[in-house]
Specification:
heterodimer; A: alpha+beta; 3 domains; six-stranded antiparallel sheet; five-stranded antiparallel sheet; about 20% helix; disordered C terminus; B: mainly alpha; Potassium Channel Kv1.1, Chain A; 10 helices; 3 strands; about 60% helix
């Protein structure tokens, strides 16, 4: 019987007796299915396979599957692609193949800050406004579909919005975000760190002033997270300040890495900073001598200034009209380079010098899939109520907890809540405005009371 | 599927097997008998049977046995698995990666979706790693970039979500639609 005919007959039979065990997938053991899933592009697993049937959904949502997927995965390069500040897609390259699957759409406009260890750090899109107080920043895991807002800035803190970023501290296994701001009229830059799960930002002291003097329109491309540290590449237009400023998320200290001397030459322009394996690279060109050829410099040994090497040169043979706007979004170990040239995304093979235009415009960043629930990543930010209730049972109706820089007072009865400020007015009169707590939004209802409703109820 | 439709393939399998030792009369090869769950008998050369890790360990445990029962394996996928392993042995004797790749590609291309899926548990049970890799990849290739409806029909999955459930789950995953606008 021809295969197609067989399939039709079989499908018809199936309809007639839905409880039939003829379904041959039932004979494929789950672990075989998992192996097959590991060979599929991630966008397909999340958009199609997850909704095929209940048992498939259960397999795909199992965290153990995530580990298997990451260990068995065919070598591929995964990007998150954003178009028009509102839509996100998976963009995955496997050998000759390219896969494109939707992640989500936003109602408001958002833009990438960075991607770290499987979490995307996004901020609300505001055009050309370097200092903003009330900017909405959020973290999302595109694999699990969970997201959370980071606590907003307090009044009076002008965020240097382009300088923030999300990092990961491997020693403590924690995600941490950094933000840099000016406090009031004071010119000094300050830095705060927010540990995912700790509810609020805390200061880590002064940030190098040099960070303020080097603001650029393409700042978004001048940062990279690798080796437990955030990196900002500063370009200062010839006054010998060019360097990479680092922030180590374990020690919470700033540091710096020198750039090769070529960057000091007048007319040399750095175009972007990126990560290659365990080290960093930057892409640049000589605006006067050879604007058409873009150079990629790799720090072959991370932290060793002498190891900066010009590893790749990309000539504009593809006839790109506007050669000024160029970013090497990803440099892969085999020399393939993912580019944004003018507005177009291009896959460039160094060996053959061939260009593949993807035919899509927008921004793309390298992203590793992470199958861990954001709830686990932000454990400390989970609902605190049961803990409080337990403490109240033990210590009485009013307790003081040191959750952030200021002590927080909790009560578990309305009487106590009213009595406390009323009876000891002056004590509470100058109490600082409550920090807005982090809102963890997810599929699970348990975290919901911790958001704005919780604040209102409070 | 009835075993009667399978048996013609089966007999051709066994007859194909027999001419080989005749051409190499110098070293008569030992035969091993495999018995499928539907009581079909397969006589294969020892070298082929040793490709099956499960059969190999069976013989290591009880070398005197002459027939290996394979209670989890039906005749049709077994005959196809034997066919594959016979070819692999040839490639072992004369390594030719290009030819091997070509053969493996052709082997899966000519198989129906059902045959492919049916062979996977057999290859898994008999622990034939190379074949398992080839089959899993072939299945992945066939469903890659296909719609959820295609994937369901390929594997013969009953969609046990109601339309409402599926819509709710998809909405749930489209998280960015919610919440964001509140601020």
């Amino acid at each position: 019987m021809p295969h197609a005919l067989w399939l039709v007959t079989w499908a018809r039979n199936k309809k007639r007796k839905p409880e039939s065990t003829e379904c041959y997938i039932s004979r494929l053991p789950d672990d075989m299915l998992r192996v097959i899933f590991c060979k599929l592009p991630i966008g397909m697993l999340l958009n199609d396979c997850r909704y095929a049937c209940k048992s498939w959904r259960a397999i795909l949502l199992d965290p153990d599957f995530g580990n298997l997927y990451l260990s068995l995965k065919e070598p591929s390069t995964l990007f998150i692609y954003m178009k028009g500040y509102t839509t996100l897609h998976w963009l995955e390259f496997q050998g000759e193949l390219c896969f494109f699957h939707p992640v989500t759409n936003f109602i408001k406009k958002y833009q990438f800050v960075n991607s770290c260890n499987g979490l995307l750090y996004l901020r609300e899109y505001r055009s050309r406004n370097p200092y903003i107080e009330d900017l909405v920043m959020y973290i999302l895991n595109p694999v699990t579909g969970e997201y959370m807002f980071v606590p907003p800035a307090e009044v009076g803190r002008n965020l240097e919005t382009e300088l923030g970023g999300l990092g990961f501290c491997p020693q403590t296994n924690e995600f941490k975000a950094i933000r840099i701001y000016k406090l009031g009229v004071k010119k000094d830059l300050q830095a705060d760190v927010y540990t995912l799960g700790n509810g609020s930002w805390r200061t880590v002291g002064a940030a190098p002033d040099i960070l303020a003097s080097c603001l650029f329109y393409h700042w978004g491309y001048m940062k990279a997270f690798v080796n437990g540290a955030f990196h900002w590449l500063l370009v200062s237009m010839g006054d010998h300040l060019d360097q990479i400023i680092t922030f180590d998320f374990e020690t919470e200290q700033f540091g710096s890495i020198a750039l090769p001397e070529i960057v000091e030459f007048e007319g040399y322009e750095v175009l972007n900073l990126g990560v290659l394996g365990e080290t960093i690279y930057f892409c640049g060109h000589d605006k006067i001598e050879s604007e058409q050829s873009k150079e990629i410099w790799v720090m072959r040994q991370y932290g060793v200034v002498e190891s900066w090497t010009k590893m790749f040169v990309i000539e504009n043979r593809g006839g790109v009209r506007n050669p000024f706007i160029f970013r090497a979004i990803a440099v892969l170990n085999d020399g393939d380079i993912f580019l944004k040239w003018d507005k177009i995304l291009i896959w460039y093979e160094l060996e053959t010098e061939s260009y593949t235009m993807l035919g899509i415009e927008g921004r793309a960043i390298v992203h590793e899939p992470r199958f861990v629930s954001l709830k686990d990543d932000a454990k400390g930010d989970g609902p605190k109520e049961p803990v409080l209730r337990k403490l109240c049972a033990q210590y009485g109706p009013v307790i003081t907890l040191h959750l952030g820089p200021e002590p927080s007072i909790f009560t578990n009865t309305p009487e106590a809540a009213h009595m406390a400020p009323a009876r000891s007015g002056p004590t509470f009169a100058s109490c600082p405005p409550a920090l807005k707590t982090t809102r963890v939004m997810s599929n699970n209802e348990t975290t919901a009371p911790y958001g704005p409703p919780w604040l209102q109820l409070r | 599927m009835s075993s009667s439709t399978d048996s013609p393939t089966l007999t051709t399998e066994t007859t194909q097997l027999s001419p080989q030792p005749d051409t190499e009369t110098a070293k008569p090869t030992k035969k091993i008998t495999l018995k499928s769950s539907d009581n079909q008998i397969f006589e294969v050369e020892e070298s082929v049977a040793m490709e099956f890790a499960t059969v190999k360990s069976f013989f290591e445990d009880s070398p005197s046995t002459d027939t290996v029962p394979l209670p989890n394996v039906t005749a049709k996928p077994l005959s196809q698995v034997i066919e594959f392993c016979k070819e692999q042995i040839k490639f072992k004797a004369n390594p030719d990666e290009a030819q091997k790749k070509k053969y493996n590609a052709e082997f899966v291309t000519e198989k129906s979706d059902k045959d492919l899926v049916d062979m996977i548990p057999v290859a898994n049970y008999l622990e034939i790693k190379d074949l398992l890799d080839v089959l899993n990849q072939a299945v992945a290739d066939r469903i890659e970039n296909k719609s959820v409806e295609y994937v369901r029909s390929f594997f013969g999955i009953d969609n046990d979500f109601t339309a409402e459930e599926e819509a709710a789950l998809r909405r749930e995953h489209a998280w960015a639609y919610e919440g964001v606008d509140e601020d």
